[in-house]
């Protein structure tokens, strides 16, 4: 099986064309990117709003729990049945799993900013938009990036299901391999997804470090 | 002039934070709101920059109802110093101080230039300008807080227990600094504290408040000390009242004895003031030393005419020969004061001489 995988990797033909490894990798990243961006558009403003005003905390917790409990594959299958084959059903499923970590990160980051610092900002004459942009978001950045990192990893791992409904991505190798009992190919898919997740996680970890300098770690 | 017109603040649960407060704070004065926790002093102060809205009554600045001024505009014209400085942890000291100027629309470089001036004014080393607040001591952070409040040169300065979080030595230093600053810049300062000593030492006017936000007395420190309006105020100032009163008389009119001329050994005999004692003055090193009959040597305290009778009495009590030196206008010790010279202040109380 390992040998099958290695020879698959060694075959130059598998690295070229529309179904080659680079193309599949590109598709996988593209789905993931779309899903995370869509989740950001939904979850980021919502998290900032709830964190800044404190309105809707109960909603946030219950919605996150519900979303976390949803099975991605089930959601996608249901949406396919409702809407037919297309990019939208898998994308929707991915967006739904990306929202909770982003929402939690943004909300926690903004809500946990020292209330005295926010009070000071308001008292010296900042309006709410300035408080959010100049005080809360910069201070929340480490937690926001942490949430984003979690969301990206989950989406990368879950984007394999897009292949289940005849789309591309690294899941292709897994579902195609399973269909013809070619476990070498299944392993190719698994290794690629794992590798991609690890590389991205490393990059994001560096990013989080860069934006959470020591000055934020020291207690005031 | 800041005017409170029958201002009340009742919280939704029915708690009265401030009850029917009438107060006139003159422009350029240093007014201290003092009282135990829960007496509504901070709530009252925060009504001046609309951080708290009164449930009844009005607050006016120079005759204008502040409820009619946009909150952000109002606050940009009022400096605010918080208990724990409330600095932005993600901004350098310089950018913290430049914040208000930036909000007022100044360019980054102009705002930073002003911020440098403000840091200098509060006695902060320019080398600290590029540090982050977490890298400073509590006292330094508090100075940055004052600098941030002063940077835009607002006519009004609000201070919420600004010195309560720093250690006693730094607190005294900061208090002296603020007193000095106020003499220079003449803002309308409103400060909140629970420390009656701090209030007596800093304020031109003191408003004593009791739980429930009831104003007990609004008067000068000396009046508060010597003529407390009721038993509540009395209980606040009863301790050490006599000594505290001496803080309000200066040595301006005290009868000092001029120093004689030095003998052949360069030492000045003190004569009847302290028989057997000699004074050694080193003008180059700017030191003064008492030399006793048995050869003991003690550094001599030196005061100015502007210092208080309280500090003079303290120095006299601490001196081995019961004397304290007085400087002339040129900072040269020319005379000394003993217990007898202070006696009139002690015997008749400060009221007769102040």
TrEMBL record, chain A:
Major subcellular site: membrane
InterPro entries: ABC_transp_perm/SBD (IPR051204), MetI-like (IPR000515), MetI-like_sf (IPR035906)
Family annotation (Gene3D superfamilies): MetI-like (1.10.3720.10)
Alphabetic keyword roster: Membrane, Transmembrane, Transmembrane helix, Transport
Compartments, record wording: Cell membrane; Membrane
Topology of this chain in the membrane: Multi-pass membrane protein
GO biological process, one term: glycine betaine transport
Family to which this protein belongs: Belongs to the binding-protein-dependent transport system permease family.
Protein name: Binding-protein-dependent transport systems inner membrane component
Organism from which the protein derives: Paeniglutamicibacter gangotriensis Lz1y
Taxonomy of the source species: Bacteria, Bacillati, Actinomycetota, Actinomycetes, Micrococcales
TrEMBL record, chain B:
Entry keyword Transport: yes
Keyword Transport: yes
GO MF term set: ABC-type quaternary ammonium compound transporting activity; ATP binding; ATP hydrolysis activity
Keywords: ATP-binding, Nucleotide-binding, Transport
Pfam families reported in the protein's UniProt record: ABC_tran
SUPFAM superfamilies xrefs: P-loop containing nucleoside triphosphate hydrolases
Residue ranges of every copy of the ABC transporter domain listed in the record: 2-237
Protein's name in the database: ABC-type quaternary amine transporter
Organism per entry: Paeniglutamicibacter gangotriensis Lz1y
Family from the record: Belongs to the ABC transporter superfamily.
Family annotation (SMART domains): AAA
Signal peptide: none
């Amino acid at each position: 099986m390992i040998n099958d995988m290695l020879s698959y990797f060694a075959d130059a033909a598998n690295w070229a064309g529309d179904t080659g490894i680079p193309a599949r990798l590109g598709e996988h990243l593209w789905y993931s990117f779309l899903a995370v961006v869509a989740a950001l558009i939904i979850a980021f403003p919502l998290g900032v709003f709830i964190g800044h005003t404190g309105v809707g905390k109960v909603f946030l917790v219950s919605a996150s729990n519900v979303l976390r409990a949803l099975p991605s594959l089930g959601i996608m299958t249901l949406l396919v049945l409702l809407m037919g084959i297309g990019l939208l059903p898998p994308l929707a499923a991915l967006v739904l799993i990306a929202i909770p970590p982003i929402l939690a990160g943004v909300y926690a980051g903004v809500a946990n900013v020292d209330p005295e610092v926010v009070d000071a900002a308001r008292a010296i004459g900042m309006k709410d938009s300035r408080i959010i942009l100049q005080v809360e978001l910069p201070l929340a950045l480490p937690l926001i990036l942490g949430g984003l990192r979690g969301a990206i990893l989950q989406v990368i791992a879950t984007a394999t299901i897009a292949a289940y409904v005849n789309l591309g991505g690294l899941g292709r190798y897994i579902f195609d391999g399973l269909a013809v009992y070619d476990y070498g190919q299944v392993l190719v898919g698994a290794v690629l997804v794992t590798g991609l997740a690890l590389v991205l996680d490393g990059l994001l970890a560096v990013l989080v470090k860069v934006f959470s300098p020591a000055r934020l770690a020291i207690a005031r | 002039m800041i005017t409170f017109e029958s201002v009340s603040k009742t919280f939704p649960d029915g708690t009265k934070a401030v009850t029917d407060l009438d107060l006139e704070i003159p422009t350029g004065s240093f007014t201290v709101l003092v009282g135990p926790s829960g007496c509504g002093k901070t709530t009252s102060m925060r009504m001046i920059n609309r951080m708290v809205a009164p449930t009844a009554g009005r607050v006016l600045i120079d005759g204008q109802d502040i409820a009619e001024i946009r909150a952000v505009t109002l606050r940009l014209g009022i400096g605010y110093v918080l208990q724990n400085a409330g600095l932005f942890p993600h901004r350098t000291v310089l950018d913290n101080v430049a914040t208000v100027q930036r909000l007022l629309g100044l360019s980054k470089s102009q705002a930073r230039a002003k911020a440098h001036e403000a840091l200098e004014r509060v006695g902060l080393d320019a080398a600290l300008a590029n540090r982050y607040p977490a890298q400073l001591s509590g006292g330094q952070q508090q100075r940055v807080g004052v600098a941030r409040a002063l940077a835009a040169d607002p006519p009004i300065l609000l201070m919420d227990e600004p010195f309560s979080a720093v250690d006693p030595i730094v607190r005294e230093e900061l208090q002296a600094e603020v007193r000095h600053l106020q003499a220079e810049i003449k803002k309308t300062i409103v400060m909140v504290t629970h420390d009656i000593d701090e209030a007596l030492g800093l304020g031109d006017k003191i408003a004593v408040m009791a739980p429930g936000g009831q104003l007990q007395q609004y008067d000068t420190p000396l009046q508060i000390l010597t003529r407390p309006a009721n038993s509540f105020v009395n209980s606040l100032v009863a301790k050490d009242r006599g000594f505290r009163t001496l803080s309000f008389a200066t040595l301006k009119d005290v009868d000092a004895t001029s120093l004689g001329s030095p003998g052949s050994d360069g030492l000045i005999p003190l004569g009847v003031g302290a028989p057997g004692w000699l004074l050694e003055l080193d003008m180059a090193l700017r030191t003064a030393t008492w030399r006793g009959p048995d050869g003991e040597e003690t550094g001599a305290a030196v005061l100015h005419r502007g210092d208080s009778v309280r500090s003079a009495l303290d120095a006299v009590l601490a001196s081995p020969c019961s004397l304290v030196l007085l400087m002339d206008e040129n900072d040269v010790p020319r005379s000394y004061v003993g217990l007898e010279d202070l006696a009139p202040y002690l015997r008749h109380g400060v009221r007769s001489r102040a």
